[in-house]
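Human: Respectfully, please carefully check these tokens:
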Amino acid sequence: MLSKTQKKYLRGLTHPLDPVVMIADRGLSDNVMREIELALNHHELIKVKIRAEREQRSTWISEIGESTGAELVHQIGQVACFYRKNPKTPKIALPR
């Protein structure tokens, strides 16, 4: 579980990032989930663009968090940012 300080720090790191995965018409498919897993393993902190209605976005964000173990850093409109520490080679040093 991330602290407020850690989330604030990660939010600052997300600003220059571009979305690495887009969820659109076909929804949160197995292929999309695999791409999210790969992106989290490689980057630790990712942006996901979710093109859907508000309720659907909320559902998908919850599903992504539950199935990947990633934590939602923040969401603005159709963009959600997730963080999951890579246990083998961490790239981001979080503040305490």
About this structure: The helical segments are 4-14, 30-43, 54-68. Residues 4 and 73 are 10 Å apart (CA to CA). Strands lie at 21-23, 45-50, 71-76, 79-83. The chain has three helices and four strands.
